[in-house]
Structures are given as C-alpha cells and as structure tokens.
Automatic annotation (TrEMBL):
InterPro entries recorded: Rce1/LyrA-like_dom
Superkingdom of origin organism: Bacteria
CAAX prenyl protease 2/Lysostaphin resistance protein A-like domain sequence ranges: 172-263
Coiled-coil annotated spans: none
Protein keywords: Membrane, Transmembrane, Transmembrane helix
UniProt protein name: CAAX prenyl protease 2/Lysostaphin resistance protein A-like domain-containing protein
Parts of the chain that traverse the membrane: 25-55, 67-86, 98-117, 137-156, 176-198, 249-271
C-alpha cells in the first residue's frame, strides 16, 4: 500500500511518497552532470525526459503524489540554464544574457508553481523574525576565515582563476564584483529555495540535500570551479542546504554565500593583479 511520509516538521507539505521516487529524481538531477559538467545537452535532455516519464509512472501507480509536477519544475529550470554558456563573460551582452536566462530559471518555475499549480511551495524567506544566535555569528566568521585560507591556494595552484576574464582595470574589476555577487544570490534562489525545497516534499532532507548538490556542483563546474574544485563545492552545496533547513532563512544563507564570494572575488583580482596582498597561504 502507498504510504505517506514527511521529511521533517519543516517540510512544506506531506505528500504520498515511496523509495522508488529516488529513481526519477536521480535522473532529473543527474542530468545536470551531462548538461553542465560534460556539456552534452542532447544526452542531458534525454535523461530529463526519461526521469519525467518515470515520475509520471510513479504518480500513475499511486506510489507517489505530485512527483512529476515538482520534478518538472526542476527540469524546466535546468533546460533554461542550458540555453547559454556559463563561461564567465563580463561584456555588456554577456551580463545581460546571464541576468535574463538565470532570472528566467528562477521566475518560470515560481510562476508555474504559484499560478498554474496554485501552490505556494517556492518561497524566498528573506525575513524570519528571529535574531541570529551566537553560533550563527561565529559560523559567519568561520566561513570567511576558511575561504581566506583555502581559496587562494585552490584558485592559483589549480589555475582555475583563468576561467574568469582577466581583470586589471577598475571597470572590469567592478563588473566582476557585480557578476560574482549576482550569481551567488541566484544560486540560493534556485538551488536552495527552488530545487531543495521542491525535493523536500518527497524525500528526507538529507536525500533532498544530496540531490540538490548534484545540480549545484554541476553548475559551478561549468561556471569555472574545476580541477579539484568539487572537493570544495560539494561540501559547500551540502552545508548551504543544511543551513537553510536549520534556519529557514534565505537571508542567512545569502550572507554566508556573499562572504564566501567576497573572498572569491578578492582572490581572482589578486591572481590577475597581485592586489590585494592579504592572503596568508597564497602561492
């Protein structure tokens, strides 16, 4: 008999689910590896289609409920993202292209969920009304120090800083700052507030977190976090999902991400210009 489970008390809704739901979810989220990691879009689209068909069969059998609807939103977002190269481009056209496509990848699933499905599952809880506790403040300090220690060594010794445009002039440095901050903000809107939240309707939080991390890390790989970068991006994606589960605060995970990205920005500039010379372990 089908059974109903709730991932935890914080989940949006209790939907009928079944362990077999992991198969279509793995197919849909795993398609990101093909789309953004190996950059073979046709194979990625085929994997998405198979995943959605399997989700439909799961729903049709009565073992799951609304699995197809939620996985379809994740698939739509991935397809939209895949329409452009994620290689960093600081030109006017490149920044506009990024803004439009990535914006649509968040907006379209939200609008479908809100006005077609008539649900309010995808939310962006900037304010929770709760003050941050001492642990949260200490964690912000830890994230900043960890990035300051680790990121210079990673970016420079691996050479991945070259995946970003050369920034030596004030205008390109300013564009890089805007771009890094904008993409970091978008990461939380899509991977956490959209993908992770939708998956938590059907899976325990730890499974949903692992699934969203597949999509998150694949995107970051194409963006430029390559070489041994997944050793950093996998823990980061998982911790961001777990942090959001604990705090239910988009503002908090956003601040964490911005602190980390501030170090990323400074390291890329340093790698190209030798300034600011503030890193202890820079090669």
């Amino acid at each position: 008999m089908p059974h109903t489970t709730v991932a935890d008390a914080a989940d949006v809704a209790a939907l009928r689910t079944h362990p077999i739901a992991l198969l279509p979810a793995l197919l849909v989220c795993g398609a990101a590896v093909l789309l953004f990691g190996f950059m073979v879009p046709l194979a990625g689209y085929a994997m998405l289609a198979v995943g959605l068909v399997v989700a439909w069969l799961c729903d049709r059998s009565g073992r799951t409920e609304r699995l197809l609807a939620d996985l379809a939103l994740i698939a739509v977002g991935q397809v939209i993202i895949s329409t452009v190269s994620l290689k960093a481009d600081l030109s006017d056209a490149g920044m506009v292209r990024f803004a439009v496509v990535l914006g649509l990848a968040v907006l379209v699933p939200y609008l479908i969920s809100r006005y077609v499905y008539r649900e309010h599952v995808i939310r962006f809880p900037w304010r929770t009304g709760r003050r941050w506790n001492r642990t949260q403040w200490l964690y912000l300090i830890f994230v900043t120090l960890a990035g300051w220690l680790i990121l210079p060594f990673y970016f420079i010794t691996s050479g991945v800083y070259q995946n970003w445009p050369t920034v030596t002039e004030p205008d390109t440095i300013a564009r890089l700052f805007v771009g890094v901050a904008a993409v970091g903000t978008w990461d939380e809107l899509f991977f956490i507030c959209t993908v992770f939240v939708l998956l938590r309707r059907h899976f325990p939080s730890w499974q949903a977190n692992l699934l969203q991390a597949i999509v998150f890390v694949s995107f970051l790989w194409e963006l430029g976090y390559q070489s041994w970068g997944p050793l950093l991006t996998i823990p980061f994606a998982l911790i961001q999902g777990y942090t959001f589960k604990l705090t239910q605060s988009l503002l908090y995970v956003f601040v964490v991400h911005m602190l980390f990205d501030a170090v990323v920005f400074a390291v890329i500039v340093y790698a190209h210009t030798g300034w600011p010379a503030i890193f202890l372990l820079a090669p």
